[in-house]
Amino acid sequence: MRHLLPLLPKPSRYAGIEDNACRKNLEDVRLRVALAFPDTYDVGMSYLGQKILYNIVNSVPHWWAERVMAPEKEAADILRAHNTPLATLESDTPLASMHCLSFSITHELCYTNVLYMLDLAGIPLRMEDRPQSLTECPLVIAGGGALLSAEPLTPFIDIMVLGDGEESLPDVLRMLETALDQGWTRSEMLLQSRTIPGVYVPSLFKQETTAWGEPVFPLKPLRDDYQRPSRRIVADLNNAAYPTRQVVPVGAVHNRLSLEIARGCTRGCRFCHAGMVYRPARERSLENINELLSKCLNETGFDEISFLSLSTGDFSALKTLSFGVLDRCAREQISLSLPSLRVGSIDDEIIERMADLRRTGVTLAPEAGSQRLRDVINKGVTEEGLLLHAQKLLEHGWRLVKLYFMIGLPTETDADLTAIADICRKVRDAAGRGGPRLQVTAALSPFVPKPFTPFQWVAQIGQDEIQRRVNLVRQQFKGQKFLKLRWHEPAMSHLEGILSRADRRMADVVEKAYRKGAVFTSWMEHFSLPPWLEALDECGISADACTGPREPGAALPWSHLEAGISEEFLLRERERALAEKITDDCRYGACRQCGACDTKASPSRMQHASAPTANDGPDQPLHRNRLILPQRDQMAHAPTLDAEGRLVCRPQTSRPPQITAELTVKAAQYRVWHSKAQGSAYLSQLELQAVLDRALRRAAMPLAFSQGFHPMPLLSFGRALPVGGRKSGRMVCAYPARGLAPAGSGRSPQAPAAPRHERDAGGAGGKKPPHRAGRCRGIYPAHAHRG
Fold first, then answer.
1. Nearby residues of 778 by Cβ (< 8 Å), 6 or more positions away
2. Are the beta carbons of 100 and 31 closer than 8 angstroms?
3. Which residues contact residue 64 at a Cβ distance below 8 angstroms, ignoring those fewer than 6 apart?
4. Is 287 exposed, middle or buried (CB count within 10 Å of its CB: 0-12, 13-18, 19+)?
5. 3-state secondary structure of 285
6. Over the chain, what is the mean pLDDT?
7. pLDDT tens, 649-668?
8. What is residue 429's three-state secondary structure?
């Protein structure tokens, strides 16, 4: 692919030049793995799961994991026009030449992108069409959070890894290495893989049908010793490998250091697939987090930290952790992001410290407008808690908040919908009469029933009804100042509902939709529902049947898989939802016997692939909630009121983030001359600035910063360098920053560069690597100057 870089859009995404990317000597490598993400580079490089697996595989000296992302449609057209297969980023090796191709499946709308990448790689789409020899075609495997219900993908995937992949993927690769050494066929490899905990081999299960062609569930196992593949988890995150030397992307949606502080959630939101199938809750120790944080920052140079978890605010020691980290953030001008926050999940002391660093919008998720409906879904959020949170934000200078709501939830009425506007108005006016107002943006997302949740049996409302409910809420927002409304595309949610609970018959629909051009379905600019509806019609499948209700207690397309959550627990939660009863978080309340943990009543429903660690006592269960503190180290604070009972708020022109004084003093100035050679020539100017900024941080060369609301490092750049090596038929144009041709180029060194349209005209010929030179200037802070 690299010979096409001058032709590809965003060529830096395909150059494989990122800092910390792993490169090995092919002579020392026995097993080559391509970690594939079925979306664009910008999205794939934000995905933490791939970074973790990349580190684990590459830690084995004779294994080499490389990355590959789905190219944009324009780039794919260029690959096809030049008969060039999709290749890895690190070594530019075609995917068909790898030993293993491993996909990360994070949601249903990426199914066709899997086929898209296989097709671009020249790999047969269906497992049955692939050669038996593992040396002729790679083993195609998949992992990720959506695989427990990804039956439409089963004909296209050889092996699926259920649950956490830190231990399962190495086990699969060790077996693949044995298979290659001993000359096993693909079928022999799949048969032996059934012995690995956490591995699901779809070809070892059969879809039976009734006499009139209706599918029969659960699927029939073809082996007596392989009846119910189970999800596998890492019991103790402190013992799990974590990437400290993460690849630093040249551009990503979330271009920051992602540090997972906990995994799993037991809040019990009844619509949440991840909250059910990632149980139990497991927290990293503070010592482990601080050690990883220090190493990660030193190795990457990121200027923003994001603590990741399904519910970061529920981390039991969040206050203790945040205060220690915020001190370092202030010293080094690093931003701290706490995503996935629940209403009331951080106290005002954390809010005040974060306000001293950066103050941007805050996102909260009440999910429903009325308290009745919040109890139905077990959200655990009260109106009083939401308004208190809004008051604390106002008190500390915030003026923007985004509220997430779902529409189409079970038992929802029009009164619940009008309550969305009511609660938004109350949040806007949380400061009281005469006080400042919050700018509130409400976002509506249609509810999609998901497998392994208490709502897996309910129907999804149709497109017309979704649109009616959106319009009803829109009417309530008309004429309201400081209130904005956004909503998710109803047709896209309708398709997600069709795929989320589908069986294997949907595989033909997925393939037909791909043949009709349905790729990047989760992107609004590429989304089109008609190809899917045509494919459904051609396969004789009704969309209404796919989104309709299921009979409680009846077998489902995923009933042959063990997620660790019992159906009895889900049915109990369904009944509690209909009765509008809430269920407390089992981390701090009574155990509800969901099946995920080892208890005195029964062992966990999941396989025990590892033994208790040294930190576990002899009587300690392996699968259990693992918390740092028995209770959260935060407490709710009442808002600050004046003598007349009004909320005390920082003024609209609130103070800028507090920056360490020594970082604002210019003590020295230095100049850096740099060149863009080979693949780096395809970096844009903005990408190059980020690369150099992070390089200075990794080199422990602190910079001085500007002051104000958005402190920036004091860097100035010379003339922006062009992207890529412009070739003119028989040479590579290597222009210095002033736009003059270099000596030996066939023109006088004093001759000005050719106009851009002339330099573009020559194709990809030439032998010299593209090369660009430029300069940047930086300022040392006072504390960095030592004589």
1. 669, 670, 672, 696, 701, 703, 713, 714, 715
2. yes
3. 22, 24, 29, 31, 32, 33, 57, 58, 90
4. exposed
5. coil
6. 86
7. 765 445 556 667 777 777 77
8. coil
